[in-house]
Amino acid sequence: MTGKWYDEKCSESGYGFVCQKLQDTTKSPTHSYHHPLPNNIEYRDHNYRVISGNLSWYNAMVMCRENHFDLVSIMDAYHQAFLTVLVNRLGAPHWIGLHSELPASKPFISNDVVCPTTWVKFGQICYNFDPVVYQLTFEKSREHCRLMANNSDVLTIMSDQENRFVLEQLWTLGLLHQTVWLGMDFNQDNNSMVWVDGSPVDYNNWPNKSPDPKLVFPDTCVTTRGVDGVWHLSQCTEQLGFICKTTTMPSPLQCWGLY
Where does the C-type lectin domain start and stop, copy by copy (predicted)? Predict the structure, then answer.
């Protein structure tokens, strides 16, 4: 183990990984690097978590973000030396946060979409149904989705086909009686409901017709039920389950490991 970087296919497994986040300045620093390595390691202004495992770059990234970390970025020679010593002691390669992407001028091929572990792929999009049983407000639900995966947010439904897919998943999981948030909220500029990703509301599944604008306020959000998929207005402060949806992004072509 020399600390050199090697490019590998991001889907390759067999790697540990290093997670990183900013240090909590309210706590006294610790500097214990004895074996076995502690759960959290502090260096300069960041906390690190070195995890040995058998994961791809994608799954390593997801696991870091689920714990409010990110895959490590190496910014200078001192940082490089620090990480080399840590990885050296484990005797195995570990993923870092460096990756390449398709140039913006090239079209993205949908077959390259890779969903993180536990996410379900439908078309060019990935969905996570684990939070259906959670109980969070609308804004807290959005925060949770963003931490789960890059470019992820609360479920939006753009077509009848997508609505049927969501219902089938909920029925398969035995969650048809759950009520979940939809990623739609009130736009004060035009006094209307809009999707949180900016998409127009071309498809809807209201019980009869779109709600009366007089019943829609800044604290109004939208929910759907697993039993029938019908949409209803709800207060954004209610605590409900939700589904996370990540839009299609170019998957990294090459990722780097620290050896």
Answer: 43-126, 122-245
Domain around 21: 5-100
Q: Is residue 254 part of a domain?
A: no
**187/247 Cα distance (integer angstroms):** 22
Pick from 113, 156, 162: nearest CA to 243: 156
Give the C-alpha separation, 82 to 85, whole Å. 5
Domain boundary among 72, 100, 128: 100
Amino acid at 171: W
Q: Are residues 154 and 91 in the same domain?
A: no
Q: Tell if the pTM clears 0.85, that is, is over it.
A: no
Contact 257, 98 (CB under 8 A): no
- State the burial class of residue 61 (Cβ atoms within 10 Å of its Cβ: 0-12, 13-18, 19+): buried
Average pLDDT, the chain: 78
Strands 94-99 and 15-22: parallel
* Same domain, residue pair 149 and 51: no
Looking up tokens 């900016």 gives 198
Q: In what order do the strands lie in the sheet with 179-187?
A: 192-195, 179-187, 220-225, 231-235
Residue 52 lies in a domain: yes
- Calpha distance 23→32 (Å, rounded): 15
Residue 189 belongs to a domain with what CATH number? Answer: 3.10.100.10
132: tokens are 């259906």
Q: Which of 12-16, 127-131, 196-200 has the highest mean pLDDT?
A: 127-131
Element housing 255 (H / E): strand 254-258
Read off the pLDDT of residues 170-221 as tens digits, 9 standing for 90 and up: 888 888 889 999 998 877 777 677 898 878 888 999 988 887 777 777 788 9
Residue 6's pLDDT band, with cuts at 50, 70 and 90, is confident
Q: How far apart are CA 244 and CA 38, in angstroms?
A: 32
